[in-house]
Structures are given as C-alpha cells and as structure tokens.
Write a structure and sequence with these properties.
Layout (H helix, E strand, L loop, with lengths): L5 E4 L5 H12 L5 H8 L4 E8 L2 E12 L6 E10 L8 H16 L4 E4 L16 E4 L3 E5 L9 H7 L28 H8 L5 E8 L2 E12 L2 E10 L5 H14 L4 E6 L3 H7 L5 E7 L2 E4 L5 H8 L16
Parallel strand pairs: 4-5, 10-11
Antiparallel strand pairs: 1-2, 2-3, 3-4, 5-13, 6-13, 7-11, 7-12, 8-9, 9-10
Length: 318
C-alpha cells in the first residue's frame, strides 16, 4: 500500500494532466478534446489517483439508462494505473472510492466494466453484493489480407458513406428495430456518432427489409480497418447483413473488424478461415451491483448482444 495516496473526483483543470497520463500509459494519443467531450459532462464521472502531486491512476464512468427501466448502467472506461505503481492496491482503491461515490449518489444502479485479457480480475470488494459475467468477446478481422494503403485513398473510396449531419436523419428509420439494454434514442446516436470522428453509415436491404451498420475507420498497426460499432436492424438478419457488408467493403479494398461472442461457434466458424483471424485481446463484460440484481434485469442482460460502440476502446481518441 502506498502512503499519502490521494484519490478524488477529477476536475476540469486536471484534463491536461489526465491526457498526458493516459497517452503515456495507453501508448496512444488521448486528446484533451476527447476527454472533455467524453468524461466531463452531466452524464459522466472521472476519478484520479495522485501520489507526490502526480497522477498515477485513472478511472471513468459514462451513465447510460437501461431500456424500459428507471435504472442506469455506469459504464467503466479508461481505467489504468502507471506500471511502476501496480500491485500496490492503487487500482483497488480507485475502484472502491469511485464505486462508493457512484452508488451513494445513484442508489440502485449498476456498473458495467470491459476488462481485457490483461485485466481479467473481477474488481470485487465489500461494496459489491452481486455480479454477472458474460462470455468473452473476441475481435474477428480480415485486416491482414489487404495491402497497406494511404489514408486519403481509403477515405476517397468510401466518402459517400460518411455519417454527417446531413444524413443523420436516416438513422431514425432503423430505431424501431433496434434492441439494446441501453436506452439509445436518436439523440444518443446523434451525439455519439455525428462528430468529427471517422464514422460511416452502410445501409443494407434484404427482401424488402432494411438494416444498417455504423462503422469507424481506425488505424491498427499501420493498417486501416472498419470497426463495427453498431448494427441497426432485425436480429434475424444480422448474419446475412454482415456477409453483405463484408463483401461490400472488400470491393472497396477495406478490411473489417468486429466483436464475436467467444461461445458463438456458428459465427466464429463462419468467419475464421484463411481471410479472417482472431485479432488481439479477449474482452470480458461484467455487470456489478451493490444490491442483489433484479431477476428481470439479469435476464435482460443475459440476452444482450454488445457491439464495439458500447465501449470507448475502439473510438478515435486523438
């Protein structure tokens, strides 16, 4: 345990230092603009651990309403501790402090976390009375079957699919088909995806039924890939729609990466072949509560299909 460790809620004056800390520890640029937009508003919380006037740990939460419920899920993001301070209870102390603050101010609500394979320990402490662990999600990608190309060429090919303010209203027609544990209305999609980030809307039509995908163009090891953030459409058409999307992107010579549940053997067997491989970390999804989780809510959670857009890991953050 580290002596004189200070843990507190972040203030706007901390944004610059948090940006420097996260950029160093995540080994990628995390801009002040992104942090201000993501974690410093009425629906988010950010906490820092300080030792000798230096930030050594960070954790943040984004507040999301559960559909058809008065409950909220507080989604945990951007949590890390500086390497030289790990295994000194800094992360545990950050979790305990932040959980206590959130549960105190938001009585019967839940937390959701997204640990990868390097952080699989369930952050359980005396505050947590119940939790539910989903099966791991893995990233499936065909990124290595394409040649590395210049960003300008890729963007030029798919310019017509750019999700701009002018085409944002198209999303409205898909919302009645959209099923999620999160209460995602048009304002959510507008705020989440109509920004200066590289989001694209691909519409699919199958036997007079419409569906759509929201994708993010993101760099990974010098290669650009489309990351599947959201699927808007009937669950029964998801696999057919995904097949069409993959073919369409292949025509534009652009790879795609997306989440698959680790126990979804049908989907994994369909895509893992000479073109698609499992890419990078596994992600575990955990729901935590300081109360016994209501059975109806737990059943709703169990049926939920998560997409990359539900976390911030795959956002462009610079």
């Amino acid at each position: 345990m580290i002596n004189s460790l200070i843990i507190r809620k972040s203030k706007k004056k901390d944004i610059r230092d948090i940006s420097i800390f996260l950029t160093k520890n995540f080994n990628k640029k995390i801009s002040q603009k992104y942090l201000k937009y993501k974690y410093f508003n009425e629906k988010s919380f950010s906490f820092i651990a300080i030792h000798k006037n230096k930030i050594i740990g960070h954790i943040a939460f984004v507040k999301k309403r559960i559909s058809n419920s008065n409950l909220f899920l507080f989604s945990r993001h951007s949590s890390c501790v500086e390497a030289s301070y790990r295994r000194n209870n800094v992360y545990t102390s950050l979790c305990t402090y932040s959980y206590k603050k959130i549960f105190l101010e938001n009585k019967s609500n839940l937390l959701i976390s997204w640990p990868n394979q390097h952080n699989y320990k369930v952050p359980i402490n005396s505050l947590i009375k119940d939790y539910y662990i989903f099966n791991n999600y893995v990233i499936i990608s065909n990124i290595f079957t394409f040649k590395k190309e210049k960003t300008a060429l890729i963007k030029k090919r798919i310019k017509k699919f750019k999700l701009t303010k002018q085409v944002a209203d198209k999303i409205k027609k898909y919302l009645f088909l959209y099923k999620s544990i999160f209460n995602k209305d048009f304002q959510y999609f507008k705020k989440r995806y109509i920004s200066d980030q590289q989001f694209y809307l691909f519409e699919i039509k199958i036997q007079n039924e419409d569906s759509a995908f929201i994708l993010n163009l993101k760099k990974n090891n010098d290669f650009y890939s489309m990351y599947l953030h959201e699927y808007l459409g009937s669950a029964s058409l998801y696999i057919k729609s995904l097949n069409i999307l993959v073919k369409k992107l292949s025509e534009y010579k652009i790879p795609i990466s997306f989440w698959v549940e680790k126990n979804n053997y049908y989907l994994k067997n369909k895509f893992i072949n000479n073109k698609f491989k499992i890419l990078g970390d596994n992600f575990k999804i955990i729901i935590l509560s300081h109360l016994k989780i209501n059975k109806k809510i737990k059943e709703k959670i169990k049926k939920q299909k998560f997409f990359m857009g539900d976390t911030d890991v795959f956002d462009n953050v610079n």
